[in-house]
Amino acid sequence: MADNEHSERVIPGSEHRCVWMDAGLIAYQLCKRRYECVQCPVESALRQTDQKPAAVAAGQLRSASASTSRRDLSAAYLYTRNHWWLHKLECRQNESYRLGIEPFLAQLIAYPKEIVLPPVGTKIKSGEYCAWIVLKGGTVPLRAPLSGTVININRPLRNNPQSIMSDPLIAGWMIEIGQATELQPHLLDRKQAILHYTKERERFTTMLCNATRRTALDVGTTLADGGSFVANLGEVIGQKKLFSLILEIISA
After folding, report:
1. pLDDT digits (tens, 9 = 90+) for 153-194
2. Domain boundaries, the chain
3. Which of 4, 21, 131, 240 maximizes the CB count within 10 A of its CB?
4. Nearest Cα to 83, choosing from 207, 242, 193?
């Protein structure tokens, strides 16, 4: 019997697998916090023992403050206010959608350490957590924009999680959901999404300015003093603060 099949059998139906178990980093752990990873001691311990250096997101400071343009979003997709895109799969017999995150959120996340996706066959419910993006500052939980059954996941993300930043609308897709129901109300077309995500960018810029203002006394060496170009927003305000701002953006 395969390990993953065995682990699914011994977990009661009323319990939830820890995201780090699905990621293959721990053998067995049940989630008792309804996927609220921010305060989880298991999450904290695993991040503290991980000594691998985080990848630097070159140009992130510039990209995160750039406005969302029409070239970023496909007219063939629908979008949600909490930063998902949905593409209906016409080749499927039932109501099926491919899901990913839109470019602005992908730019903020930059280079993730890990993408944790639910196993194929998992039933998900609209509004509940269905995917997790592991960053240096913490784990970003994403709530499902619809209900259904996971029929496919983007397995190459395991080895190349940066695809969600470099190509969020195509190679960086995350999950395919079949028998879809309970889609979020007020889905956005491209024009509506551009307006909404532009407002989100402006809101994030305001939050970022407030955060950098509080850390202004610790600015240190500037570029004019011979310092280097800042490639990651986390280097300016701290990884944990950037993580908290991302949570604010996706929770609105």
Report:
1. 999 999 999 999 889 999 999 999 999 998 888 899 999 999
2. 1-51, 52-252
3. 131
4. 193
